[in-house]
Amino acid sequence: MSLRFYDTRARTVRDFTPLHEGRVSLYLCGATVQAPPHIGHIRSGVNFDILRRWLTYRGYEVTFCRNVTDIDDKIIRVAKAEDIQWWQVSERNQRAFTWAYDTLGCLPPTVEPRATGHVPEMIELMRRLIDRGHAYPAADGSGDVYFDVRSFPDYGSLSNQRIDQMRAAADSEGERDKRDPRDFALWKGARPGEPSWRTPWGPGRPGWHLECSAMATKYLGDTFDIHGGGLDLVFPHHENELAQSRAAGDGFARYWLHNGLLTMGGEKMSKSLGNSLLIPQMVRKVRPVELRYYLGQAHYRSIIDYSDEALAEAAAAYQRIEGFLTRVAEVTGGIQPAATVPDEFALALDDDLGVSQALAVVHGHVREGNSALAEGAKERAAGIAARLRTMLDVLGLDPLSEQWAGAEDTGLREVVDALVTVALEQRQAARARKDYAAADEIRDRLGAAGILVEDTPHGPRWELKRG
Ligand SMILES: [Zn+2]
């Protein structure tokens, strides 16, 4: 069976064949850096990180472009409110996003272009659109440039809407000489006190949609494979990107993939709800890898309705995987990843990135591996663990990988391990002389210090209590 994805534009699952053999170009609408990210923002990053890792596993060389929108109305408002420069707001929040992506194990994109660094490309795209009769500068000289939606018969094809039923474009304040209320701003003419860049039609700043078209085609070519983003971007953002680029004569994206949103109590994340779910707060509740597991476990197109309980369940599920691998590593002295993943795992991911089915395969392996350990079948357990590492690597969740194994202070862990070993030897000695009260006291005092002792067929082992 071949790799296939649900394509929003085709409204069906389609077999995936890249434009160029062996290579995949992927564009993801990244952060609008007006505030630090909450988990709703980073879910998209995790979903597309898994897609990218799976494409790489499948042998494709992936060029992954994720942009940064570093100028918009809200960034300007925040800067005014704090009496700082707009770029201070963007810089600060871009760093928060980068930190969040890194913390959750999202591999850095191949390129991460910023909108304001691509004004010449945007001017060129506007010129092509104006020349072809698809865009016009506002006749009032405001510097606004609009896309003429009626000039493009396919307008609405991505979001499956008829133009007559569409709402007016809300992206330009104050309706400055538009021909049709649905015409959207490619460029916003300068207003007093706002940052602006010069164009042949007057000074102003980029419209959001234009940025993405200009950056996607600059780095990935006129036609590229996959365009991704959150479901809330389908209209107007992606509809407008598609219209601009096609009207200008580019092929643009061949497949459109959208991740489902993250809600809370059934509602879309708002700023007030989102504040409690900022990434630094979340990684105090659970470890980053557990948060990644939580955000990545559901199918990318499904809605995640956030709850602390579901987060705790996800963390516990991850700890079962981790516990098994740690035990095998202790028994065997180390686990090398297997060369390939099991077929059923591959089938699950090939089928529109079925991560939940793939995780079912992972947990089946953990159960089987634990039975093998209980029976003392070390070799069988080691084989299962090797396959597990390879599967988990594709999901960015391998507990023994550099990313996650190095997440704790290993130097300190060695010291603790030596101290706990001394205590455990004394406990063994107490048991040997049948002084069970002393043996239990040692275990209880370790427990009070946050160290969980477990007796296994291979002797006692310890781990730090979580949560
Ligand atoms: Zn975009």
From TrEMBL:
<dbReference type="InterPro" id="IPR056411">
    <property type="entry name" value="CysS_C"/>
</dbReference>
<dbReference type="GO" id="GO:0005524">
    <property type="term" value="F:ATP binding"/>
</dbReference>
<keyword id="KW-0479">Metal-binding</keyword>
<keyword id="KW-0030">Aminoacyl-tRNA synthetase</keyword>
<feature type="binding site">
    <location>
        <position position="241"/>
    </location>
    <ligand>
        <name>Zn(2+)</name>
    </ligand>
</feature>
<dbReference type="InterPro" id="IPR032678">
    <property type="entry name" value="tRNA-synt_1_cat_dom"/>
</dbReference>
<feature type="binding site">
    <location>
        <position position="271"/>
    </location>
    <ligand>
        <name>ATP</name>
    </ligand>
</feature>
<dbReference type="GO" id="GO:0008270">
    <property type="term" value="F:zinc ion binding"/>
</dbReference>
<keyword id="KW-0648">Protein biosynthesis</keyword>
<keyword id="KW-0963">Cytoplasm</keyword>
<keyword id="KW-0436">Ligase</keyword>
<comment type="similarity">
    <text>Belongs to the class-I aminoacyl-tRNA synthetase family.</text>
</comment>
<dbReference type="InterPro" id="IPR024909">
    <property type="entry name" value="Cys-tRNA/MSH_ligase"/>
</dbReference>
<dbReference type="InterPro" id="IPR014729">
    <property type="entry name" value="Rossmann-like_a/b/a_fold"/>
</dbReference>
<dbReference type="InterPro" id="IPR009080">
    <property type="entry name" value="tRNAsynth_Ia_anticodon-bd"/>
</dbReference>
<dbReference type="InterPro" id="IPR015273">
    <property type="entry name" value="Cys-tRNA-synt_Ia_DALR"/>
</dbReference>
<dbReference type="Pfam" id="PF01406">
    <property type="entry name" value="tRNA-synt_1e"/>
</dbReference>
<feature type="short sequence motif" description="'KMSKS' region">
    <location>
        <begin position="268"/>
        <end position="272"/>
    </location>
</feature>
<feature type="domain" description="Cysteinyl-tRNA synthetase class Ia DALR">
    <location>
        <begin position="344"/>
        <end position="405"/>
    </location>
</feature>
<keyword id="KW-0862">Zinc</keyword>
<dbReference type="GO" id="GO:0004817">
    <property type="term" value="F:cysteine-tRNA ligase activity"/>
</dbReference>
<keyword id="KW-0067">ATP-binding</keyword>
<dbReference type="GO" id="GO:0006423">
    <property type="term" value="P:cysteinyl-tRNA aminoacylation"/>
</dbReference>
<dbReference type="Pfam" id="PF23493">
    <property type="entry name" value="CysS_C"/>
</dbReference>
<keyword id="KW-0547">Nucleotide-binding</keyword>
<feature type="binding site">
    <location>
        <position position="237"/>
    </location>
    <ligand>
        <name>Zn(2+)</name>
    </ligand>
</feature>
<comment type="subunit">
    <text>Monomer.</text>
</comment>
<feature type="binding site">
    <location>
        <position position="212"/>
    </location>
    <ligand>
        <name>Zn(2+)</name>
    </ligand>
</feature>
<feature type="short sequence motif" description="'HIGH' region">
    <location>
        <begin position="31"/>
        <end position="41"/>
    </location>
</feature>
<dbReference type="Pfam" id="PF09190">
    <property type="entry name" value="DALR_2"/>
</dbReference>
<dbReference type="GO" id="GO:0005829">
    <property type="term" value="C:cytosol"/>
</dbReference>
<protein>
    <recommendedName>
        <fullName>Cysteine--tRNA ligase</fullName>
        <ecNumber>6.1.1.16</ecNumber>
    </recommendedName>
</protein>
<dbReference type="InterPro" id="IPR015803">
    <property type="entry name" value="Cys-tRNA-ligase"/>
</dbReference>
<feature type="binding site">
    <location>
        <position position="29"/>
    </location>
    <ligand>
        <name>Zn(2+)</name>
    </ligand>
</feature>
